[in-house]
Amino acid sequence: MSVDVLNPEITGKVLPRANPLSKLFAAVLITVVVMLSVDWVSAGVVLVSELLLLPLLGISVRRLLFRTWPFVVAAIVAAYGTALLADKTGRVLFELGPVLFTEDSVNAGLAIGLRGLAIALPGLFLLASTDPTDLADALAQWLKAPHRFVLGALAGMRLVGLLFDEWRTLGLARHARGVAHEGNPAARFGNFLGQAFGLMVQAIRRATRLAVAMEARGFGAGPRTWARESTFSRIDVVVVLVGTLIAALAVTAAVAAGTWNFILG
Amino acid sequence: MGSPITARGWGWRHPGRVRWAVRDIDLTVEAGERVLLLGASGAGKSTLLHGLAGVLGDQEEGEQAGHLTVDGVSPADARGRSGLVLQDPDTQLVLARVGDEVAFGAENLAVPRAEIWPRVHRALDDVGLDVPLDHPTTALSGGQKQRLALAAVLAMQPGLLLLDEPTANLDPAGVIDVRDAVVRVLERTLATLVVVEHRVDVWADVVDRVVVLDSDGGILADGAPSVVLRQEGTRARLIEAGVWVPGYRPETPAVSARPGADLLHAAGLAVARTRRGNAVLDDVDLTLRGGEALSVLGPNGSGKSTLALTLGGLLRPRSGELAARPPLARGAGTSPAGWKSAELVSRIGTVFQEPEHQFLTHTVLDELEFGPRRVARQDEAEVRRRVDPLAERLRLTGLLKANPFTLSGGEKRRLSVATMLATGPEILILDEPTFGQDAHTWAELVALLAELIHAGTCVVSVTHDRDYTAALGSRVLAVDGTSATLEVAA
User: Fold this and answer.
1) Does the keyword Transport apply (chain B) (predicted)?
2) How many of the other CB atoms lie within 10 Å of CB of A258?
């Protein structure tokens, strides 16, 4: 299977049209606010807002779960672990041998779980709606990121996609030589290292060729222009406003409910 | 307008090497001339081309002798005046979308935005690539990728086009597409052309001039194609250098196929690249017998390689039957994909297109001994009995201490075949064994395989090479779309 890292599946209609920088701003703002406090109200407000906005991404619930299940599992595990280990204060809700849940420990677990999900989702919004090339354009044109770095990273990402194929071919090629996925764990690990080394050799070779091709096309010679103009539109105003609104709402609700629990405080 | 080239006693030596990659080059190419650059492997054709493109680097990256100019200035100062297209379609594309890829060079030359897009459309038009600007570059075929690479240098409006074996990795249809695109471009832009290519017949009618580099430095022959390629003296020297001269095919021993026992039988076989992926090829019916050759022919991307991997026991069939007959199975079960490594390597050997993918050790000798000793676990006497004659026959005895990665292209190819033969498989499968090979390596490979077939091995090749197929007296399995049909022997 070929993995095209630079052409991810972009879904939805509205968000892909927003400038990557405004999406980045909104995502970072929301993430920071959720990270500042461990409480279930601020995390819950953010999570509910995010869930309400999910239709904008235009992906089905099934695909969404497929893409996010590791986060969901991690959040549940974290919530359970916290509820199990947090200070056992407040009313006892459940007790069975050494397993003891109290009101406060369950609250703490809930906060950790919701917070994990609320932090993960803005990243999903950004990834699912942003083309890496657009992001590179925006970073270089608006934030004046050095073009050698931005375009080098972009070209590097393309190579990563090719290396997925290369890894598969290497595995088959080595299997044909009799290096197989059989034998004891040590032999398998040795085989893995050998294949990784082979991949590294090929990666360096390809990267060198790509660098020559880029240099031959005048890359890095001097000032350059940008064929694609990175622009902002009314959508970006809305994205930034909605992001700010969610962040503000989360803080206000948590403070009003008396649950705001500043991590450094 | 085309850019003129001058070279005066020019040479280049890579750092840490004793031998010059290329030297004593005296050459004048007029603006708009079209030059085919030939020479034996290692004669320095690519180095000269890279020198003209200005990408060889500065003193730290090598040592230069004499002078080389494009448009009267050093190539490194004439960035953008020349456009270089390389052999591998996958490692010269930079961006994700077709339009952006073409615009990249113009952006680097600081062409104003308003001027870039007309240039992009013009360039795509010139090479006849009719896809939307936001088409993913990864979704193109090899021939389309090479035409895209050509369009990408055209957008810089270069006066000099430099093509380094641009069609070596393509199927026959792709080769013609790329060649025709180049001709169209030259007619419009009047750019100077320097092209390096083993397969001379593709370019002989297109160029005005053939320049042959001498492996010992300097220029061996220089003149009109009709003169250089047909004159007795130069023709003989080109053949001696391993160049594919039109109308010449290296002599190879005749193969008398004497079909032996049935080895592997496929019925209604469907193959897929991944376990749950879509079948790329359906309904293949086939019997492989000892002492015969089979060529799998068809366009790139038609599932030929996947079929080869499946026949080689490296991929599981998607559906249908693939069964080893008793003379091949010898008690190891009927499904090749289910065999243990030691069982597989002594029954079926698969030689991959890129020899380096299969190198596992640090010396040629270890490489040859790996199969018999470490996989098949044979005793020392048996290992010697197999490896020593093999090294002798494939002319690897002088290289036994060398690192496989440092060998030449032809040597790597010989070694990769030898490593498979070391465990004595009944079936040998080769993926594109003749891609980019000069005539010497080609002839050597054909002779070796003919010998194997004569000795009772079954040789299966995925290839575009009709000459190779004919030289081995192969049966032909023609793959097209998702179906595969056995052609009746001609």
Assistant:
1) yes
2) 9
